[in-house]
Amino acid sequence: MLTLKVLREESARVIERLKVKGFDATEAVAEIAKLDDTRKALQQKLDTTNAELNNIAKEVGMLFKEGKTDEANKAKERSVSLKEEARKLEEQFKQTQAQLDAVIVTLPNLPADDVPVGKTAEDNLVVKQGGDMTTLPKDALPHWELATKYDIIDFELGNKLTGAGFPVYKGLGAKLQRALITFFLDVNTQAGYKEVMPPIMVNEASGFGTGQLPDKEGQMYHATVDNFYMIPTAEVPVTNIYRDVIVTDKELPIKMTAYTPCFRREAGSYGKDVRGLNRLHQFDKVEIVRIEKPENSWAALDEMVAHVESIVKALELPYRILRLCGGDMSFTSAMTYDFEVYSEAQGRWLEVSSVSNFESFQANRLKLRYRDADKKIQLAHTLNGSSLALPRIVAALLENNQTPEGIRLPKVLVPYMGGIEYIK
């Protein structure tokens, strides 16, 4: 959530920067200014009225002491009238504050200055490409056919048990999932990220804190009786660990990692892009989250990008890193880098990770603050990244490594697979 200070003092910049995200904030910014002025005027009237009430209370006591009963009773009558006025002012103030907050939360985060201008994924900027492209025979199979051939993932059984987008991993397929999760967590913890195991359902406050609510409620599975939401990413519960918390500057940076199942409705998805593991309603993902001082968050973002790149390299997959354009960025992000791996069998790039800096946007919603060296309390910066999401990693591993002997596994995964080098 953008701070009111920024919205009032830098309104022209806010409007200009949000155009990069394709968002016209002109009317919202004007309404915010009007509501804030009304709120301040009501606060001033309320303060004046309460001050007068305090003075009358003192005056009544003195008048009774001096035996001036009639004057004291008149003052009390005046006090009753002022109390009613104060009650109305307080109600108006609360309503105005609620209206103000409701408008502010509709505004996305400001994109950083070096976010590329653009509307769609086609306008994203490729900043790096690495890994060796794979040459496969003409009869190479896509991963959904390989999954059936080697009996490692059963899409039809998942459809029977739940529905489309809920696959069942079997045998070496299940073992590969477990191996990847453990490998990702090991790499993350070795890099100083503390492992946590959070709930996979969250309340409304948690969804609001990281920006999933009210922006993406239609994409989240909702347990209506208890008003809990199935998490779309571990970012939500892990970042919310520090909701309503003030940390000291010596505690920063805070680095956390977590494995969770993730749940997304993916409403509106259809076509070839949803075949097999390309787009699921339930999938496994390992996440990294950081809480930083504002002056360190951009260096931290670069460090996180390099960290995710090292994992993709270890998996021996061809990859590229994209800096997302304004129109393709999330509501909450100030800067996002996407990682894609190339699927030779499908002939296209598959997104496997997003690494983002939210600056103070999430922290303001979370009331996540830190006390600096001068004992001043200010908003922290939050960052997160997929490290990594499993479905498309598995798809690329299966497709790019298919050989006459079976699916060759990257060397780094062999110890996690109990010495198995090929899925046969």
Explain what you see.
The protein has 424 residues and is α+β, with helices and mostly antiparallel strands. Helices cover 40% and strands 21% of the residues. It is built from twelve helices and 19 strands. The strands form five sheets. It has an eight-stranded mixed β-sheet with strand order 1-11-12-13-16-10-9-4. It has a three-stranded antiparallel β-sheet with strand order 5-7-6. Strands 8-14-15 form a three-stranded mixed β-sheet, with no helix packed on it. A hairpin with a 2-residue loop joins strand 17 (402-403) and strand 18 (406-408). Helix 3 (26-65) runs antiparallel to helix 4. The chain is elongated, with a radius of gyration of 28 Å.
Mean pLDDT: 94
Q: What portion of residues belong to β-strands?
A: 15-25%
Number of helices: 12
Task: Describe the main β-sheet briefly.
Answer: 8 strands, mixed
Shape descriptor: elongated
Give the low-confidence spans: none
What proportion of the residues is helical, as a percent range?
A: 40-55%
> How many beta-strand runs?
19
| Spatial order of strands in the largest sheet | 1-11-12-13-16-10-9-4
Radius of gyration, in Å, reads: 28 Å
Structural class: alpha+beta
Could you tell me how far the N terminus lies from the C terminus, measured between alpha carbons in angstroms?
Answer: 51 Å
